[in-house]
Amino acid sequence: MAVIVLIILVGVAYVNVDNWMPTNPATQVASFMPNGFTGVMTAVSGVFFAYIGFDALSVLSEETKDPQKNLPRGMIISLVLCTVIYIILTLVLTGMVDYRKFEGVGDPLAFIFEKSNANLPWMELTVSFVAIIAITTVLLVFQMGQPRIWYAMSRDGLMPKKFMTIHPKYNTPSYATIVTGIVVGVPILFTDKSFILDFTSIGTIFAFVLVCGGVLLLPAKEKLPGRFHMPYYNSKIIFPILFLGGLTFFYFWQPSFFQNLMDWSDPVEGEFRISMFFYIILNLGLCILAFIKNLSLIPLMGLSSCLYLLTGMTHDNWFWFGIWFGIGLVIYFSYGYRNSQIHKEMNGDLN
């Protein structure tokens, strides 16, 4: 965090505001969003990886003092801080160097001091060194969160009991931690960086889709124990107006997109059109459900937003995600379903 703040403070003096208005090669028009709003949202789907971590706090609920109070507060504060810092850092990066020069760059933070006119070699060395150390923080997030998820699944009977093994000294899920390290570490040796980022992003976004959908299934007026309660706003009228109004605005803004929406043969836009077609269909269904079921607005907006982020994923992302999802289903139906605590309770076999 200290290095990021240092980069912002040093780099802001070398920002060239003209870099924030690059020219689109196709239209020769200077714009803050040269590839349009679609280009921005496509990039968001990929860089979503950067925000992974705030949700890992919920995994530590059993090891947190007063989790009903501290977890919601910690998740919201960390998400707001990360968002603000990332936006400021991105403005500095793209202000110092034209965004098109970042293509294929592995270390953009050191790259800006190399390619800009800052002439600060000490910053380049400092950032490169700290970046290597900072990578371990990402690994710690996975190594701390995923083993506890498997531990909880094992306790519920969805995973083998071996994943409940607790280290006698450190009181941590040791077996699950070792398996997590192997599952995460070995594939990295045979894949590239882009694949890991995209694959992680699509999995996380899909998990958020399930979370938002699960919240929608909770009774709107049921008072659950706890200090944090999500505000309820009836989406019966608001959500259909927002979605259909946005769809209408986009139609008049980009009529050619809707005219070619069913043309899936285009090698460049075909994948995005397919995704947008299903996104529109799903949201029309959500509009109907919102009107009939009086669904809560906040999780419904979250569900719609996450579904839109999924439209930026390529067919390769969906292919590998489908394989991984299929492996999960095989484990569930071959082991988890029969051994789950809920299944045993329904069949009267609590032993």
TrEMBL record:
Key words, A-Z: Membrane, Transmembrane, Transmembrane helix, Transport
Keyword 4Fe-4S appears in the UniProt entry: no
Topology in membrane: Multi-pass membrane protein
Top-level division of the source organism's lineage: Bacteria
Entry's Gene Ontology molecular function annotations: amino acid transmembrane transporter activity
InterPro entries named in the record: AA/rel_permease1 (IPR002293), CAT_C (IPR029485)
Location of this chain's protein in the cell: Membrane
All copies of domain Cationic amino acid transporter C-terminal, residue ranges: 297-340
Transmembrane spans: 37-54, 75-97, 129-151, 172-190, 196-217, 237-254, 274-292, 297-313, 319-337
A Pfam family recorded for this sequence: AA_permease_C
GO cellular component: membrane
Name the record gives this protein: Low-affinity putrescine importer PlaP
Organism (species): Kaistella antarctica
Higher taxonomy: Bacteria, Pseudomonadati, Bacteroidota, Flavobacteriia, Flavobacteriales
Gene expressing this chain: plaP
